Every structure is written in structure tokens, then in C-alpha cells.
């Protein structure tokens, strides 16, 4: 990513950076272990017309709480970024199977009444967007844990200390362990939709990029804001790396959403805090946030594959 992902904090910070470097190097080795699928230069899915578009992903894709909800079980909105991308690209076939709570496992496993997400793909699919991995590292648990621990030391970094109490950063390790899962997803996408243009969508900026806090609007301890910001950047860095090593494209939604995080006033906010003021799930994009991600995806698509 274009943003700095280095944690601060002297010698201990340097040790954490070393752990992250090893973890991300491991991601690269895992992703490169098997040769990626061959490209299909003459296949559809370039900057021109899209014929069949399938959107896979979790709640950041589905848009829970944003009107109008078209699938209550999955929290899927008709104003989420796949719907906005489809409105612009006007594919003959548009299938959005994104679902709140999805992990990489839901690519192959049913989620309630919803079939495996990979079932949405076939040889005619020529555009696939994938936004997954946040639930694999435990987004919801991280938020709950950090909010609970904040009361113990509101000016300190109790959440960071908890996740690093064993001598290594458990969240950095979780991100590294998620990398091969995302690799497997991308290879399965290629197997089912061999002619598709595959786009991995990163996660937006949930917290201020400068590391400042906004307790109690976002109930994290002051010193945990930089740590959690860096964790989000690490996740996006892993997704970018895995996409690049598996012949997929990556869309940065972090950069375009900086300055519109949970701490901003309602008029400027594209990510809602834990008590939303606009229709959206807590700690999730609102309609403006989904529109911002749609613009980022469309800009990537319009540049053409393999460029930028």
C-alpha cells in the first residue's frame, strides 16, 4: 500500500516490524508456491463492456443497514458498491452473493440459506470482485476486545498490550495465516471463471490515518488507535500482495476514504461509529462509503487490466 504500515515504538516497535516482515514474506512464499493460472489475453473482461459480473464478499461488500436491504439475512443493500459498479458497467448478468459475517470458508460452504459464494461463478463470468479476509482475522472480536479493555487504561494501549502479551503480535500472525486462505479463494475463482477479470477489493479507512483518537465516539484507548490503524493497513498490504502474486488486480479503498473515518462528524463520515448516525451497521461503510468504494473499483476497471 502507499500508506506507511510501520508500527511506532522504539526497539519493541522494531521487533514488531521484524515479525510483520517475516509474516508478509511468508505470505509471498505461500502465494508463489504454486504457479498462478495462465492469463487469457483474448478473454472478455477488459475496460469495455462487462457481460457477467459476480460480487463475492463480506459485510463491507454487502452494505448492512443501508437502504434498501434486498437480503435481510446477509445484510445486502441495493446501494452497495457492487450494485453501483453494475449500474455503471451494465452487465447482462449481475450476481451479488456478498453476505455479512462471511469468511473465506463461505466461498465453499453455505451460510444459512445462502449457497457457497463460489457457486455464483461459471465459465461465462468475465468480472469478479472479491472483498474477504476481515472476518478471518476477527474484525468483530477485535472491536469488542479493544472497546472492553479501553476502560482499564483509556490513555494507554491496553488492546495492543493484550494482543502482544505473548511476545508477538497475534493480529499480524492472524493476517499472515489468512493469506493462504485468500490465495485458495483466488485460485478457486480462476478455476470456475477462467476468463474473468478478478479484482481484490481492500478495506476502507476505519480510523483516523494520523493515529488520533475520538473517545468516547469510538470507545478505544488513545494509544490503541495507531495500533488498530496499522492492523488495517497490514491486512490491506497482505491482500495487495496476494492479489499481485495470483494474477488478480487490487483496488485500494483505504486511500480514497482517508479523512472520512468513524471519528469524523456525520456530514463528513463514510464509516459509521459503533453508534451509527446514518443507516449502516456499526463500524461499517454507510451509503457514502459504499459509493466511495464503487468509485475506486470503477477507476481500476476503467484503467484496463494490469495497468496502474
From TrEMBL:
Keyword field contains Hydrolase: yes
Q: Which residues form the signal peptide?
A: 1-39
**InterPro entries xrefs:** SEST-like, SGNH_hydro, SGNH_hydro_sf
Against CDD domains, the record matches this protein to:
SEST_like (cd01823)
Domain SGNH hydrolase-type esterase as annotated: residue spans? 55-291
UniProt keywords (A-Z) are: Hydrolase, Signal
One Pfam family matching this protein: Lipase_GDSL_2
Q: What GO molecular function terms would the record report?
A: hydrolase activity
**What is the protein's given name?**
SGNH/GDSL hydrolase family protein
Species of origin reads Streptomyces bangladeshensis
The uppermost taxa in this organism's lineage are: Bacteria, Bacillati, Actinomycetota, Actinomycetes, Kitasatosporales
